[in-house]
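Example (one chain per record):
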Amino acid sequence: MVAGGGPKRGRRPASPLAGRYRPAAAQRPTATPRRSPDQDVRSPGRSLTAVLLAIAASLSWGVGDFIGGLKTRRLGAFAVLFVSQPPTLGLIGAVVIMRGVPFTPGPWMAAGVLAGLVGLIGLAAIYRGMAIGVVSVVSTIAATGPIVPILVGLVTGERPSVLQLAGIAMALAGIAMLAFDRRPSEPGRRLIPGVGLALLAALAFGVFLVAIRYASRPDPLWGVLATRTGSVGALLVLGLLFRSRVRVTRVDLPPLVAVGVLDVAADVFFAVAATIGLLSIVSILS
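Predicted structure:
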């Protein structure tokens, strides 16, 4: 046999179909992109829920502040707060206990207490402002508080949209237009009564929105409970000093209780909305 003429030992003869049918090369699995935790927050369903809750908070806060402002004209801001706020601590505490969510201590507690204290300052300011000034002017200026969360986001790295920046500019211009009396009884331009308190309320409410957002990260209702603990604790301490100023009749109790319930309900609505939606959006809607 001629060398190299036959098949070599240990090798199979090549099949005539080997070049036609080759197995497809195994494709390398593509890496699945990691999901950002904010993707769930920004999903259409959760975003819509956050918007609806923010609107509910706005309505609840608006009605409660209006009733509280009217009652302040006769009873005083401290009496309205001292009667309306403490029952809400027991109410939200009962809801938290019934839910059975375990308590996990952390920095959110300090944020909740801070939210309660600045929220109390904001309520006292807007109640007093409505009592001595024009309700429509005071409430409009106090409603500019969401500027604070937007500015906080800017400092922490967020970039507001052009519409948000335009909204801030329009809000500041609106404050300037509303704050001054165009037809003062005395010569010269002067601030409308209650404007200073409205500005204080706006600042306090803005800080409140940021603080309650951080307090609600572990659980919204625990965050609201911490908020109520801070505000009610401060009221009880102040009550030892100004107890003589609290003169309330039975007729006043139902509307004052309604003020407290509306206020704590709005806190819950906003806390939930802020945990499932964007803070800048829910703050503006609230």
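Caption: The longest helix spans residues 44-75.
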